[in-house]
Specification:
CATH superfamily: Methylglyoxal synthase-like domain
Number of domains: 1
Mean pLDDT: 93
Helix content: 25-40%
Strand content: 5-15%
Radius of gyration: 16 Å
Structural class: alpha/beta
Low-confidence stretches: none
Length: 153
């Protein structure tokens, strides 16, 4: 995929064990574009992504956190809270239980609360990284508002 984006993003990449091959395939499909951005990954995913890109001769800035079960999801959530992540791609294994489910939910929640776009499948990820809004100087994301509406019956 060839897309020209001027803004340098910090993109979090997280994939559960049974989704890691899918993540590597997605990264390779988008390798040229992703090589212009900073990638922050959970440990094992980051190692696989780095190796796959190197095998293709592609240099990329990749920072690896701990693995998910060892706190990597929480480390990335902390970056989200500090506004240091622009986009998150989190390929979740929805078919098998995860021992660190609380950390997974925390990362998803922090992305929602702090208005960080998060894609949980490849199609959403492709739509998000190819959005023209990244370079649109006039676009300002609307902050989430939490307003209580009393229900009238």
């Amino acid at each position: 995929m060839n897309i020209s984006m001027h803004k340098k993003l910090t993109i979090a990449l997280v994939a559960h064990d049974r989704r890691k091959a899918d993540m590597v395939d997605w990264v390779l499909f988008n390798a040229e574009m992703l090589s212009h951005h900073k990638l922050v990954c959970t440990g094992t995913t980051g190692g696989l992504v780095k190796k796959a890109l190197e095998n293709q001769g592609i240099q990329a800035e990749i920072e690896c956190m701990n693995s998910g079960p060892m706190g990597g999801d929480a480390e990335i959530a902390a970056l989200v809270v500090r506004k240091q992540i622009d986009l998150a791609i989190f390929l979740i294994d929805d078919l098998n239980p995860q021992p660190h489910e609380a950390d997974i939910q925390m990362l998803l929640r922090q992305c929602r609360v702090h208005n960080v776009p998060i894609a949980c499948n490849r199609y959403s990820a492709d739509l998000m990284i190819t959005s023209s809004l990244w370079d649109d100087e006039t676009y300002v994301p609307t902050e989430p508002t939490y307003v209580y509406f009393e229900r009238k019956e």
